[in-house]
What we know:
single chain, 27 strands
Amino acid sequence: MEQLLKQITRNAPAIKVVSETFKIPDKKENIAGNWIGKVKKLLLFRPGGLPKKGICIFAAMNYKPGFLCLFLLLVSLYSFGQYPPPPGYKGTTAISKDSSVFYNWASKCTVIRGYVNIADTNFLYNNSNRASYGNVYMATGAPDGLVLSLGDGGMATMSFDTVISDHDGWDFAVFENSFSDSFLELAFVEVSSDGVNFVRFPSVSLTQALQQVGTFDTIDTRLVNNLAGKYRLYYGTPFDLAELADSGRVNIHKITQIRIVDVVGCIQDAYARYDSQGHKINDPWPTPFDTGGFDLDAVGLIHNSPSAVDESLLKPSVSIIPNPCSHDARFFSGNPGSIHFEILNQMGQVLVKSSFTSSTSVDISYLPAGIFFVNFTCPGYSYPLTKKLLKY
């Protein structure tokens, strides 16, 4: 059995067999729906969460004299997660801090710190019962690893030098400082057009809520959606203002502030916070340190509006058809003059650079499957239009 498992996992070095014992009966027995052997303990795991391509083993056994048949069904665990995976994995939405899709960063921050332990507000760390690490200046500008810690339920409100407006695709991204793909401290994201009324992005957390995720325990990013902190240090979690178009309480073409609110992460009823579907949000807790809670590194704008004028005057008319596509992507423009474009990967590296008038066809068959960004620069517009291009 051990040799067979070694052969199966030879090409999956991240998977480790912890222990296994196997008992075989000493007489012929035909059993339908019953085990003829007993597996005491067989555990396949990958430290830090589910493997990219894991193996789940099911054994169907039928005893014959001197013969044991094992039928192994190998099932990829990759599909178990419903939402985008970590940076570097197919289908991720993580955006590198070095990506050229960013045109502006938060210039001002105000903060209301949360407790280091919301369940014991008398608990002190460094003579304070609230998170105290970092300052508001560390949360402004581009990501640099210097952060502002929010504490349990703390919040930071970010302002910018420009009005934020909805465009096609992602509009901004939030950066945290997680040291791994699975130690994730999460936060709600809200936006406002007047600094008074804030609307929260609908979020989902499918992490189990039966057992508390411990202080240094991990969660699977593929079970989390629309919560900041989904990705590790220097990779932003993106948000699309179009999701809030029907809220009725915010003008998605005139956003002035973005607010980051720590989710606490405790599953006790008295302190639990809930996603938009009513699930308790479970993340590492308690974190009774000055660095407790969400650690805000930066908020970057992917699209920014130079003034609060009519959006129709700001948005160039450019489209990608078909999208997603596998071979030839066609770009169409309703703007006069020559349109310059660049296709970038998620690291911000320019892969294709050219220009066209009216329309053009671009061969992307050689690109790997995933999400790419296309920057279109149109005459008469002071900033590029960025669109997502999905390659399958």
